[in-house]
Write a structure and sequence with these properties.
Structural class: alpha/beta
Number of strands: 18
Mean pLDDT: 86
Shape: elongated
Keywords: Glycosyltransferase, Transferase
Oligomer: single chain
CATH topology of the largest domain: Rossmann fold
Pfam families: Glycos_transf_1, MGDG_synth
CATH architecture of the largest domain: 3-Layer(aba) Sandwich
CATH class of the largest domain: Alpha Beta
GO cellular component, one term: membrane
Number of helices: 20
EC number: 2.4.1.315
Radius of gyration: 25 Å
Strand order of the largest sheet: 2-1-3-4-6-7
Distance between the termini: 43 Å
Protein name: Processive 1,2-diacylglycerol beta-glucosyltransferase
């Protein structure tokens, strides 16, 4: 049943890992780079590559998805929030990917065929959706991982076939298992970030608190307004302002803070960011998934400003819920709010401890470790099951509450105890008529007869049988699952 011999003639060769991202913002590519570094450090991986799927797409497609998104963020943020909420319904978009995306996917498919990966890691939902389609069509048989890059799980990331989903926190796993997904296919790892420096700078408890202000992420005029408000603070502090590659912004801020003497340090693009995160006492900036994760890993609490509606607002909600952040909704009160935080005895230290508690610095290393040691057969969610999951979500119910023909059941590989399919109970009828043995056990197998059966069964068999001619499975109805066990991060 294998379509692409992944390892070539040498069956003992190591793993070949392809990491697929999409350059909509920097976070997805930063997560991909972190996973790449983690893979490069493993002796069982022979080769690892990163591919930004937008970079090999047409210019029009790339601009629409990449630059177009930030045009909407800047000019009509309410539309971004509406789109986020609409796409949050799981499997709202079912079936084949749209023709335009499929046309732009040809270079990606070509790259996969040339590289012949044994594992594919997706740090954006676009390649994750494409990989599910290729897996079900029999084009690839590599292990597929979906790695989310925000603290909240958005339904757009959920695909019809994969080997593992990696989420940022335990609530994400609880959300997915409530939809009906098996717990053995969902892992809580945190968001992948670059390896932390071996020598960690020690914060000087005697020195004034240091603010690390991410001006480049907040944008020109807004960033200038944020820095201007810190000039009105009464508490003693120092500040490092990072402007990235925006030279014009750096010059504006340098002029603005010149009267403050050496209290401010203004930087352009810098490779010192990991050290700065550990030297600072408070971060001022946007709660992007990667920047927030880097701060938490460094034990650095955040002052949240100008979050993008949708994912960044939800990231901020989680950080505030955990006591590791405050949010400023008005530029005019930023200085006052930071002052209030610094003037309250012990508050900054409590926030630093909260950030340290929820930090996950080893997330990037956990992704290849769990994926390569996990099930070799994918989980397939049938179209009927997708409809059930969407309907349950729209009706604000969980999968275990469902009964009757539309309820969900799992097919479990008897040898590995991993779930290989999630389907409706009514879909079992055809399978049991054709594939039940004399004892009533269900054995999926290659069928050489000409008796027609549903295409959904063909998709399922093609994906999960691999080289085997048969696969005994156990049918398990969904029941109310016990609470999800904490995997190392606090629940939120």
């Amino acid at each position: 049943m294998r379509r692409m011999p992944e390892r070539g003639p040498n069956a003992d060769a190591g793993e070949r890992v392809l990491i697929l991202s999409a350059g909509v913002g920097s976070g997805h590519n930063s997560a991909a780079a972190a996973v790449k570094d983690a893979c490069a450090a493993r002796s069982d991986i022979d080769e690892v590559q990163v591919l930004d799927v937008l970079q090999v797409s047409s210019v029009l497609y790339r601009d629409l998805l990449g630059r177009g998104y930030f045009v909407l963020v800047e000019n009509v943020p309410w539309l971004v929030e509406w789109g986020y909420d609409i796409s949050d319904q799981p499997f709202r978009r079912r079936g084949p990917i749209d023709p335009w995306t499929r046309a732009n996917a040809h270079p990606v498919v070509g790259a996969i065929k040339r590289f012949r990966p044994t594992a594919i890691v997706c740090t954006h939902f676009l390649p994750a959706q494409l990989m599910a389609s290729l897996l079900l069509r029999g084009v690839i048989d590599a292990r597929i991982a979906v790695v989310t890059t925000d603290y909240d799980f958005q339904g757009l990331w959920l695909t019809s076939a994969f080997h593992a989903v990696f989420v940022a926190r335990d609530e994400g796993k609880a959300q997915l298992t409530a939809m009906g997904l098996p717990a053995d296919r969902v892992a809580v790892t945190g968001i992948p970030i670059a390896a932390q420096p071996e020598q960690t700078p020690v914060r000087d408890s005697e020195a004034p608190p240091m603010l690390l202000i991410s001006a480049g992420a907040s944008g020109g005029d807004y960033a200038v307004a944020v820095v201007r408000q810190t000039l009105h603070m009464r508490s003693p502090f120092t500040a490092t302002v990072v402007c990235g590659r925006n030279d014009a912004l750096r010059q504006r801020i340098e002029q603005l803070v010149a009267p403050a003497g050496n209290r401010y340090r203004v930087l352009g693009f810098t490779t010192e960011m990991p050290q700065l995160l550990r030297r600072a006492d408070l971060f001022v900036g946007k709660p992007g998934g990667l920047s927030a994760s880097e701060c938490m890993a460094a034990g650095l609490p955040m002052v949240l400003v100008n979050p993008i509606p949708g994912q960044e607002v939800r990231n901020g909600d989680y950080l505030m819920e955990q006591g590791a952040a405050i949010r400023c909704n008005s530029v005019a009160t930023i200085g006052w709010k930071i002052d209030e935080l610094l003037r309250e005895p012990g508050r900054l230290q409590r926030m630093q401890a909260a950030a340290q508690r929820i930090g996950r610095p080893d997330a990037a290393a956990e992704v290849p470790s769990r994926l390569l040691s996990g099930p070799s057969r994918p989980l397939v969610v049938t179209r009927a099951a997708q409809k059930t999951i969407l309907s349950a979500s729209e009706n604000r119910t969980v999968a275990s509450d469902l009964t009757g023909p539309s309820s969900l059941v799992r097919l479990i590989d008897g040898a590995t105890e991993s779930t290989v399919a999630l389907m409706r109970a009514e879909e079992l009828d055809d399978l049991q008529k054709r594939y039940a043995d004399s004892d009533g056990n269900l054995v999926l197998r290659l069928d050489e007869t000409r008796v027609p059966f549903r295409s959904e069964a063909r998709r399922l068999f093609r994906s999960v049988l691999l080289d085997d001619h048969s696969l005994p499975v156990r049918v398990e109805a969904l029941a109310a699952d016990p609470p999800v066990l904490v995997e190392g991060a606090p629940t939120g």
